[in-house]
Amino acid sequence: MTIYVTKFSKYIPSPENPAEQPKLEYVDALFRRRLSQLTRMTIEAVHGLITEASDEEKNSILSSKLVFASFRGEIARQLKINKGLVEDADVMPAPFSLSVFNTPPAAATIALGMKAGYTAIYPSEDNFYSALLAAASSVISGSEKQVIFAYADEKIPEEYKDCKNYIEKSPLAFACLISGEKSKGAIEINLSDERILRIKPEDFLSFFR
To answer: In Å, how far from its chain's centre is CA 94?
Structure first.
């Protein structure tokens, strides 16, 4: 139950502008203009793993499977879809296709040329540990040498502030390379540690400060 994080990257909007989005200047303009904040942050975080890597490491990262997790998914786009259903009783195919939960990892693999495949995980009840464990399971079992684990949540639309269970959460995204082999500079994480069982995304970030 021990894993090693060999690379880490994050994107966090400024506190003054929680709706801030990365520019993604390395992505085709026609492709990126349709992307949400969530998808843009996911691409930026995964791209960050590649930018500082050597050519050999880049090839290894690009050939690694991607596991994506989010508590809220494409919540802003989903709200627009719901409004369309209520107000117009209609949904256009293009907006709907970009509102589904697996949009961020799918767009990331397209934008960055990743061909090993991806998995999208919804951790119920905001249980980050379950997402982390699912991402690491193939490494722990030995079926994969390493995987990319990406987590992201975007700014919650203002309309949700009146909901009974609304909790303000800052948008953020990060990606890390999880390996089953210890290497120089890697962060060791014991998934059996009780502190890890209750870990939140913000707490996970503290490992890499």
So the answer is: 22
What's the mean pLDDT when you consider all of the chain? 88
Identify the CA nearest to 172 among candidates 61, 72, 41, 53: 41
The residue among 55, 40, 9 whose CA lies nearest residue 177 is 9
Burial of 22 (C-beta count, 10 Å sphere; 0-12/13-18/19+): buried
Please spell the DSSP secondary structure of 51-106, one letter per residue: HTS-HHHHHHHHTSEEEEE-SS-SHHHHHHHHHHHHHHS---HHHHHTTSTTHHHH
Measured distance CA(168)–CA(138) in Å, rounded = 33
Of 145, 201, 197, 198, whose CA–CA distance to 173 is shortest? 201
Tokens 């890390």 sit on residue: 176
Least Cα distance to 73 among 33, 36, 19, 27 occurs for 36
| C-beta of residue 149 within 8 angstroms of C-beta of residue 175 | yes
Lowest mean pLDDT among 16-30, 90-104, 178-192: 90-104
pTM as predicted: 0.90
